[in-house]
Amino acid sequence: MKGLIQLPAEFDYNLLLHALKYYKKPRDKIRGLIKNKDILRVKKGLYVLGKEYNKPYNKYILANQIYGPSYITGQSALAFWNMIPERVELIISMTTKRKKLFETPVGRFSYLYCHKKVFNIGIKLEHTGDQKRILIASPEKALSDIIATQTQISSEKEMKEFLQLMRLEYGDIKKLDSSLLEEIKAGYKRQSMNLLLNCLKEDYV
C-alpha cells in the first residue's frame, strides 16, 4: 500500500492516521491492514510494518516505546555492546513504574522496577541508525542492574563464578569505568555490588 511505504518501521497511531488521511473511514482501514498483516499491532497505539515492506523493525526502539520511562539493560544491553556472545530474545528494561511483561507479536519485553535515585545513573542516548536513538544502559549500568538483583550471592568466590557463567570477556571487564561503578553502587546500596567492585579490583579472577 502506497501510504504505508512512507512510514518508518515503527510508528504510532497518529502517524498511521496521517498516512491514511484520504480514507473516509481510516479506523476500518486500520483493522483491515492488521487482519491482512500489512501492519502488526505491538500494543495499543504502536505498530510495525509487515514483512512485505522490507523495513525491519528494531526491538530496542520498540522497547523504549512500549512502556516508559524506561531504558534497555541487563543481557539485552550487554548484547547491544557486544559483551556477551548469546543472542538475546527477551528484551529487558528498567522502569520507575511497576514491573511488567509484554507478550507481543514481535517478541517479549520485560520491565523491572528501578528506584528513581539510581535510574538516571549510567544510561546513554545511543544512535541505532536511520536517525533514531535509544535510551540504553552503559556496560557498567547493565552489569550493575544484573548484579543488584543477585541477592543470593554472598561471597567473592560466588560472584566470580557468576561472572564466569555470564561469559564476559576479560578485555571488556578491564574497560569498565570504576568511578561510574562506584556511583551506581552508592545508589543501589546492595552487598552484591560491593562484591562485584571487590572482584573487579582484584582483576576479576
From TrEMBL:
The lineage of its organism: Bacteria, Pseudomonadati, Thermodesulfobacteriota, Desulfobacteria, Desulfobacterales. This is Transcriptional regulator. It comes from the Bacteria.
